Amino acid sequence: MRVVVAGGHGKIGLRLLRLLAAAGHEAVGLVRNPDHRDDLAAAGAEAAVVDLESADASAVRGALGGADAVVFAAGSGPGSGVARKVSMDRDGAILLADAAVQTGVPRYLVVSSMGADESADPAEQPDEDDPDVFAVYQRAKGAADAAVRARDLGVVVLRPGRLTDEAGTGRVQLAPVVARADVPRDDVAAVLVALLEKGASGHTLELVSGETEITAAVRAL
Ligand SMILES: NC(=O)c1ccc[n+]([C@@H]2O[C@H](COP(=O)([O-])OP(=O)(O)OC[C@H]3O[C@@H](n4cnc5c(N)ncnc54)[C@H](OP(=O)(O)O)[C@@H]3O)[C@@H](O)[C@H]2O)c1
Questions:
Q1: Ligand 1 pocket residue status of 198, Cβ below 6 Å
Q2: Which of 75, 77, 153, 172 lies at a CB distance of 3.0 to 4.6 Å from 108, suitable for a disulfide?
Q3: Under a CB-based contact definition with an 8 Å cutoff, are residues 153 and 101 in contact?
Q4: From first to last of its 221 residues, what are the pLDDT tens digits of the chain?
Q5: CB atoms < 10 A from the CB of 50, how many?
Q6: From the CA of 77, how far away is ligand 1's center (Å)?
């Protein structure tokens, strides 16, 4: 399977690329900084340089050729303001989904967020001075999830709880609704691999640490 991961140098993205390559898949990471190519090569992955906030649609399409699945694991990050919640977390995910449709990539997995808010107007252009940046982020994630689901793609929206860098346990709770808790990025990456290998689509799932072994949790969907 050829899998393209947006946010290829991110904390989840790089873990995911490593796991995919180790499992014998063709792993391709989208990075915005060409200096990150070496880290991806060390992970066993190819790199394509695409900035999802400034690239035009044809450049994004060019990076997706021949892919069996695309994973959106990019994000504006905790230090960014309202504008990038919209340009990256919402519009970057949608740009990538449109490019996937246009290049015939059948499947799209989006790393969303527990608490993503789908109730807001998806075209909202928030006030740059809105002090509640986290609420803007959750509305941007919710709008992206709804827009991606409306595309002609096999979609999984994965909504982890608070991410940690602790070692993965290999055990999770994965279901449409779970109680809020933390989850190691290691386990998020492993769940993404299991979802990709199962060919899962048509799910919106929350994810936190739990008692169920990852392959069993995914098999049970
Ligand atoms: N933090 C949490 O507790 C939490 C909880 C639930 C969900 N999430 C979501 O989980 C996802 C991944 O988290 P993470 O910890 O792996 O994030 P991360 O380490 O911050 O990685 C985000 C990646 O996105 C890339 N990126 C930023 N702007 C970009 C652009 N314009 N074009 C292309 N790539 C761009 C970054 O590139 P550079 O490497 O060049 O900076 C980085 O590699 C995000 O969508 C986040 O919103 C987070």
A1: no
A2: 153
A3: yes
A4: 999 999 999 999 999 999 999 999 999 999 999 999 999 999 999 999 999 999 999 999 999 999 999 999 999 998 899 999 999 999 999 999 999 999 999 999 999 999 999 998 878 887 888 888 999 999 999 999 999 999 999 999 999 999 999 999 999 999 999 999 999 999 999 999 999 999 999 999 999 999 999 999 999 99
A5: 25
A6: 5
Alpha helices for the chain (secondary structure H): 11-22, 37-42, 57-64, 82-84, 91-103, 133-150, 185-198, 214-219
Spatial CA neighbour of 75 closest among 124, 111, 128, 27: 111
Distance (angstroms) between ligand 1 centre and the Cα of 113 equals 11
Using the structure block, give the residue that is written with the tokens 């807001």: 120
Q: β-strands 212-213, 171-175: how paired? A: antiparallel
59's tokens = 């450049």
For ligand 1, whether the C-beta of 181 sits within 6 Å is: no
pTM over 0.90: yes
Task: Report how far ligand 1's centroid is from the alpha carbon of 88 (Å).
Answer: 9
